[in-house]
């Protein structure tokens, strides 16, 4: 455990602390969905550190203290988190979510994020999406799309744009945090063998009613063609 606050890792420090054997979050009993999500959310960014400190009901402080002192701080300080620490978090979430399989079964990362962000910590939705005139709030966006023959080794920018287009979605506003779940794959089928991370994401064309330039004349666009 590490009760001392640690900032997220960056640049050379991230490479030094996180690279090598016995680094990352130790897997156990189908914990990969949670391990990957926690590593992505906290190892190298402070965007969601409010989850660690947000005032919450007395019964939920156990979740915050385990998350903060047994997972996030050790990960940032030593680059390693024991499986037992994640199991303690899973046991707490089992009680909060009234779902006994949280400690042993493989879950959808979205189910985990919804439970811990909404039902346990009471955070406001991070994303506001609109489709067909209806607006909805959510905590992460999962990429759904048909197989694209021209996308052999896509980057995240391409996948997000294709997914938004095929689902007729728009962002109502620029999100403070944009959590994206890559296309599903299993042992028997992978939609893409590799996906290139986009270090920056341009959401200009994904925004609802955002002023954009005409691709023909360069002036303010009046019409949008999919």
Structure notes:
The protein has 226 residues and is an alpha/beta fold. It folds into 2 domains: 11-120, Alpha-Beta Complex (Cathepsin B, Chain A), CATH 3.90.70; 125-225, no CATH class. The protein is built from 7 helices and 7 strands. The chain has helices at 11-18, 32-42, 50-53, 61-78, 83-97, 109-120, 156-167; strands spanning 24-25, 80-81, 127-131, 134-138, 141-142, 170-171, 180-181. The strands form 3 sheets. It has a 3-stranded antiparallel β-sheet, with no helix packed on it. It has a two-stranded parallel ribbon with strand order 1-2. Strands 5-7 form a two-stranded parallel ribbon. Helix 4 packs antiparallel against helix 5. It is globular and about 60 Å long. The mean pLDDT is 89. It comes from Upupa epops (Eurasian hoopoe).
């Amino acid at each position: 455990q590490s009760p001392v606050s640690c900032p997220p890792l960056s640049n050379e420090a991230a490479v030094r602390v996180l690279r090598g054997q016995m680094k990352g979050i130790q897997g156990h009993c189908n914990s990969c969905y949670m391990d990957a999500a926690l590593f992505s959310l906290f190892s190298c960014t402070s965007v969601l550190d409010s989850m660690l400190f947000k005032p919450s009901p007395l019964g939920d402080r156990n979740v915050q203290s385990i998350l903060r002192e047994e997972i996030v701080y050790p990960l940032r300080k030593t680059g390693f988190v024991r499986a037992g620490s994640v199991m303690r978090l899973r046991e707490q979430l089992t009680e909060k979510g009234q779902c006994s399989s949280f400690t042993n079964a493989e879950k959808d990362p979205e189910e985990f994020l919804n439970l811990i962000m909404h039902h346990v910590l009471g955070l406001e939705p991070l994303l506001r999406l609109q489709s067909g005139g209806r607006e909805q709030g959510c905590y992460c966006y999962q990429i759904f799309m048909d197989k694209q023959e021209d996308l052999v080794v896509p980057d995240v920018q391409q996948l997000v744009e294709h997914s938004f287009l095929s689902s007729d979605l728009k962002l109502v506003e620029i999100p403070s945090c944009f959590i994206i779940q890559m296309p599903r794959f299993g042992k028997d089928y992978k939609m893409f063998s590799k996906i290139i991370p986009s270090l920056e994401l341009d959401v200009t064309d994904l925004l609802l009613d955002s002023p954009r330039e005409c691709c023909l004349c360069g002036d303010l666009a009046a019409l949008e063609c999919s």
